[in-house]
Amino acid sequence: QVQLVESGGGLVQAGGSLRLSCAASGRTFGNYNMGWFRQAPGKEREFVAAIRLGSSWIFYTDSVKGRFTISGDNAKNTVYLQMNSLKPEDTAVYYCAATLKHTIRTREYEYWGQGTQVTVSS
Question: What is the per-residue pLDDT for 28?
Answer without folding.
Answer: 67
